[in-house]
């Protein structure tokens, strides 16, 4: 249980399933998911970049949707499933195809944004497969894809969908290359 220096009036027991493992924590109502992951569960992959939801370094998947974990109050996620970059690979230590593609394409430099980029890319692939359009997908009423049908991912579509994740090193072309390798 966490919650040092907190009284029970400002804390709630919260259960999160993180990377397939349930965790029940006593969480201060003011704490965000990012801090709980890093400080209480020792999952350091999600990074604290801007702490304002603008850079994407803290991106994780909550119930299959990509989110900025620096903005979400952990107590509001009671019962949710959280997947971090640490949970992308298999049980035997093998890499997720996106992780392998990032390595193969040298799609990172300093690596600070890479965990958020990977989680965002995985969420983006699931969103496109489910038929969720982006700004560049095209109008479904005027020749674009049918609603609910998978969206074809080209370089413009990938760039648009990953635009919420910033890379100060400028590895964007290689990140797009890596995602393209996975969807081929």
UniProtKB/TrEMBL annotation:
The keyword Lyase does not apply. It holds the Pfam family Fer2_2. PROSITE patterns: 2FE2S_FER_1, 2FE2S_FER_2. InterPro entries: 2Fe-2S-bd (IPR002888), 2Fe-2S-bd_dom_sf (IPR036884), 2Fe-2S_ferredoxin-like_sf (IPR036010), 2Fe-2S_ferredoxin-type (IPR001041), 2Fe2S_fd_BS (IPR006058), Aldehyde_Oxdr_Iron-Sulfur (IPR052914), Beta-grasp_dom_sf (IPR012675). GO terms for molecular function: 2 iron, 2 sulfur cluster binding; metal ion binding; oxidoreductase activity, acting on the aldehyde or oxo group of donors. Residues 12-88 form the 2Fe-2S ferredoxin-type domain. Pathway: Alkaloid degradation; nicotine degradation. Residues 131-154 are annotated as: Disordered. Keywords: 2Fe-2S, Iron, Iron-sulfur, Metal-binding, Oxidoreductase. The keyword Oxidoreductase applies. This is 4-hydroxybenzoyl-CoA reductase, gamma subunit.
């Amino acid at each position: 249980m966490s919650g040092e220096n907190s009284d029970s009036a400002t804390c709630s027991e919260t259960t999160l399933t993180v990377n397939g493992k349930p965790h029940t924590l006593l969480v201060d109502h003011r704490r965000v998911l990012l801090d709980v992951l890093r400080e209480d569960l020792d999952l350091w992959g999600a990074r604290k970049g801007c702490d304002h939801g603008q850079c994407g370094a803290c991106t994780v998947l909550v119930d299959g949707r990509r989110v900025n974990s620096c903005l979400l109050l952990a107590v509001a996620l009671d019962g949710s499933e959280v997947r971090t970059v640490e949970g992308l690979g298999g049980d035997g230590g093998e890499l997720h195809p996106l992780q392998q593609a990032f390595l193969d394409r040298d799609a990172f430099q300093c690596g600070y944004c890479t965990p958020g980029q990977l989680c965002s890319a995985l969420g983006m692939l699931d969103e496109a497969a489910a038929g969720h359009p982006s700004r560049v997908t095209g109008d479904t009423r005027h020749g674009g894809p049918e609603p609910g049908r998978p969206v074809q991912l080209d370089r413009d579509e990938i760039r648009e969908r990953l635009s919420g994740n910033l890379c100060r090193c400028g590895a964007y072309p290689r990140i797009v290359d890596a995602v393209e390798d996975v969807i081929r």
